[in-house]
Amino acid sequence: MTVQQPIAPAAPQMLETTYHHSAFAQGDLAVRLTATRDGRPCLQAAGEGGVLAEAVLLPGADHPPGLEAFRFRVGALEEAAMVAVLVEAAFMRMPEAEELLLPEPAELPAASVLATASRTVDGGLRHAVARRQFYQLPLLWRYQANHAAYPCLRSSLGPDDRLPPLRPPRPVGTLYERWLPELGMALSFRPIERKRDLALFHEWMNAPRVDFYWELAGSEAEHDEYLAKQEADPHIFGVIGSFDGEPAAYFEFYWAKEDRLGPYYEAEDFDRGWHGLIGNKRHLGRPKTLAWFRSLTHYLFLDEPRTRRVVGEPRASHKRMLSYSSDTGYVKVKEFDFPHKRAALMCCERETFFREVVL
User: Fold this and answer.
1) CA 218, 222, 227, 233 torsion-angle sign
2) What is the H or E stretch that residue 196 is in?
3) Which residues pair with 158 in a beta bridge?
4) Residue 275 above 80 pLDDT?
5) I need a labelling partner for 213 at 20 to 30 A (CA). Which of 35, 56, 193, 318 fits?
6) Angle between the 194-205 and 220-231 helix axes, to the nearest 10 degrees?
7) Tens digit of pLDDT for each residue in 5-48?
8) 236 vs 253, 294, 325, CA distance in Å?
9) Count of H helices and E strands in the chain?
10) Helices 319-326 and 286-303 meet at what angle, rounded to 10?
11) Best CA proximity match to 105, nearest among 94, 115, 96, 120
12) Per-residue pLDDT for 1 more than 50?
């Protein structure tokens, strides 16, 4: 049997300071690696007003690494969110670690909403947080207040042979934000705003390297009409991607079942798909492009817990796109013919992504 190695960005270890985005609060939290009075490594999370929480970092030797001796400032963010920040900070500093040990819930109640297993270490019980599960939890990265959760209500509207459930409205405001240790930058997504972003969308679509794949060069009026039609379509919404707040890319996130892709495979109700382009030439290059692939796939899995697959349909001849996909957990299922191109059906399974791709 071939053992699949984790697909990881090149990240420096033992970073001095990292930055984190809680799903429940606007603004960054900084986590600094410092030391206790007796010299043990300690992670300190700070926001406006000073230190909010801290924990001692335990390097792993004959057992997984861990965190202990948690301390919280009264009135700080919800304890579970603060523990999640410290857990992410520890995983960032130890990209090879697949598991992190926490005190048992009697000592740290928040451990009960993060851990899925227990371990006995030096005669004591510890709860274990698996990396592949931690990054599926909605405690960080995706801003919860900017999304609407919908139950699975069957609709009679849509393609007759592929009726989807009722879809939620497009989210508002910042959707997702994550600081990337390998780049030292924050990546974020927000929905495109037709009036605010029309000039930028028009400029990017008329760039020859973009038009070669998108075939959407045209006037501002034509692009305004394109975005207006998209606003009226619940199966898709456009997104501006930014690095440190600077617009860099445009993506379209769609529900695959009622999309043009739906008839070409056995689509499930919550399969998601995406198209994308890098509009800002300052942000071209493989490290940043791989960061987009990892982050947008992460967002789509976070956005809907029932999503088991993220799919794409790039040109079958687009070797660079296929290479990026294979480095971020996607596999080519087949090639097929759209009316306008020969496409490759790329598919990323939830289990594969969180098991093999290191965020």
Assistant:
1) negative
2) helix 194-205
3) none
4) yes
5) 193
6) 120
7) 555 554 444 679 999 988 776 678 999 999 888 889 999 999 87
8) 6, 20, 21
9) 8, 16
10) 60
11) 115
12) no
Summarize the confidence of residues 229-246 as an average pLDDT: 96
Q: What is the bridge-based pairing of β-strands 342-349 and 66-72?
A: unpaired
Instruction: Indicate which residue of 88, 313, 349, 351 is catalytic.
Output: 313
Q: What CA–CA distance (Å, rounded) separates 328 from 295?
A: 10
Pairing of strands 66-72, 50-58: antiparallel
The C-alpha atoms of residue 204 and residue 276 are separated, in whole angstroms, by 12
Length of the chain: 359
Residue with tokens 């930055």: 19
| Domains in the chain with CATH codes | 17-135 (3.40.630), 176-356 (3.40.630.30)
DSSP-assigned letters across all residues of 46-71: EETTEEEEEEEEE--SSS--EEEEEE
Active site (annotated) includes residue 313: yes
CB 190 within 8 A of CB 147: no
Structure tokens belonging to residue 24: 């429940």
Does the global pTM surpass 0.90? Answer: yes
Q: Is the CB of residue 216 less than 8 Å from the CB of residue 225?
A: no
**Close Cβ partners of 79 (under 8 Å, ≥ 6 residues apart):** 72, 109, 110
**For residue 282, pLDDT beyond 50:** yes
pLDDT, mean of residues 114-125: 89
Q: Which residue has the tokens 């020859």?
A: 208
Nearest to 53 by CA among 26, 15, 22: 22
As a whole number, the mean pLDDT across the chain is 91
Say if CB 59 and CB 67 are below 8 A apart: no
Terminal CA-to-CA distance of the chain, rounded, Å?
A: 25
Lookup: tokens for 33: 């690696």
Q: Which residues are 176's β-sheet partners?
A: 142, 189
List the strands of the sheet with 124-130, edge to edge. Answer: 17-21, 28-35, 41-47, 50-58, 66-72, 99-103, 124-130, 117-121
How far is 230 from 201, CA to CA, in rounded Å? Answer: 13
How far apart, in whole angstroms, are the C-alpha atoms of residue 77 and residue 80? Answer: 8
Structure tokens at 307: 């999503």
| pLDDT reading at 170 higher than 80 | yes
pLDDT exceeding 90 applies to what percent of the chain?
A: 74
